[in-house]
From TrEMBL:
Protein name: RNA-directed DNA polymerase, eukaryota, reverse transcriptase zinc-binding domain protein
GO molecular-function terms, A-Z: RNA-directed DNA polymerase activity
UniProt keyword annotations, A-Z: Nucleotidyltransferase, RNA-directed DNA polymerase, Transferase
Length: 173
């Protein structure tokens, strides 16, 4: 088994373009430029820009387009909403703070899906979206909000989070 150099690419992280080009020429492969998608994550892009999240929004839309909305019951839509639509952007959300406009867009798509609204269609929502997002303890349906989820996932990345968590568990319980 051998490596096909013509299909290989070299990508430099925190290296000058010149040094990456020289190394690629020595090896005989091409240079890969940023931004690029690597295992579903944007590398080298500015994730605080709305346009960088187009791929994540497209994934949600693609998943929604495969389901026949009219044939699903409310319970079926709720199950898909929790299990699938809630989990698609989680990995990206755990790495980057998502712009509010993107969160609004993704939340609107989930809300329309739950209410049985197809693109370009208007329909009465029989259940208030805040009630859907509310915890089951408070009479809601227990769907997690993307806004709250993004806040928690970015908090988990912060430096003092685990120290603070340990301190609270140790001294306040």
């Amino acid at each position: 088994m051998s490596i096909n150099i013509h299909k290989s690419h070299l990508f430099g992280i925190e290296d000058s373009d010149v040094s990456v080009s020289e190394a690629a020429n020595r090896i005989g492969c091409s240079v890969m430029k940023a931004p690029l998608w690597y295992f579903g994550i944007m590398v080298g892009g500015n994730m605080s820009l709305v346009k960088e999240w187009d791929e994540s929004i497209a994934k949600l839309k693609k998943k929604l387009s495969k389901w026949k909305l009219k044939t699903l019951s409310v319970g079926g839509r709720l199950t898909l909403l929790k299990a699938v639509l809630g989990s698609i952007p989680i990995y990206n959300m755990s790495l980057f703070k998502v712009p509010k406009q993107v969160l609004n867009s993704m939340e609107r798509m989930r809300m329309n899906f739950f209410n049985g609204v197809q693109e370009g269609e208007r329909k009465i929502a029989w259940v208030k979206w805040s009630k859907v997002l509310a915890s089951k303890k408070f009479g809601g349906l227990g769907v997690s909000s993307f806004f709250a989820l993004n806040k928690v996932l970015t908090l988990l990345k912060s430096d003092g989070f685990f120290h603070l968590l340990f301190f609270n568990l140790e001294y306040y319980n």
